[in-house]
Design a protein that fits this description.
alpha+beta, globular, 11 strands, five-stranded antiparallel beta sheet, 4 helices, single chain, two-stranded antiparallel ribbon
Length: about 160
């Protein structure tokens, strides 16, 4: 008797952002690369929104604006393997990690992974600042009106409560 192991796919929410170079082309290419990656199925992509750059001290109107979107995927990858994939895609697009919250050609973040709540040195789930970021919440709500951010509640309620 042969036993076939079936891989279980988990839903994940990925935030995409770029504020350097050809931002729209970079987001499109990154979305394609994510969709083409083994173990990942792209199920939805939001429209693109433009937002000012945010630094630890607040909005920086002198920095180039960001284009942001949210992708929904199902994946057979672990959270760490998905994070590795996102890092590889960022590097392929010239991502340099020189300054926290600095300008970047591409930023890919796991916002949610199957409703998991965890924190390691490499990855905190859900994303620790997602509940405060309209450029994550609004596009996410667009592609999933029933979305819930673990530990924070319905995304629709979070959007409504934004300043």
């Amino acid at each position: 008797m042969s036993v076939t192991k079936r891989l279980i796919a988990s839903p994940a929410v990925i935030a995409l952002g770029a504020n350097l170079g050809d931002r729209r082309a970079t987001l499109l290419a990154a979305t394609r690369e994510l969709a083409d990656a083994p173990g990942v199925e792209l199920t939805a992509i939001s429209s693109v929104v433009e937002t000012p750059a945010v630094r630890p001290g607040g909005v920086d109107h002198d920095a180039p604006a960001y284009l942001n979107a949210v992708a929904l995927v199902t994946t057979t990858l672990t959270p760490d393997a998905l994070l590795d994939l996102l890092g590889t895609i960022e590097q392929a697009h010239g991502r340099v990690r020189a300054e926290r919250w600095g300008d970047r050609t591409l930023d890919l973040d796991i916002v949610d992974f199957a409703g998991m709540v965890s924190s390691t040195e490499r990855l905190t789930l859900p994303h620790p600042r997602a509940a405060e970021r309209d450029f994550v919440l609004k596009p996410w709500l667009e592609v999933d009106p029933d979305a819930v951010l673990p530990g924070h509640g319905r995304v629709a309620d979070l959007v409504e409560a934004l300043p």
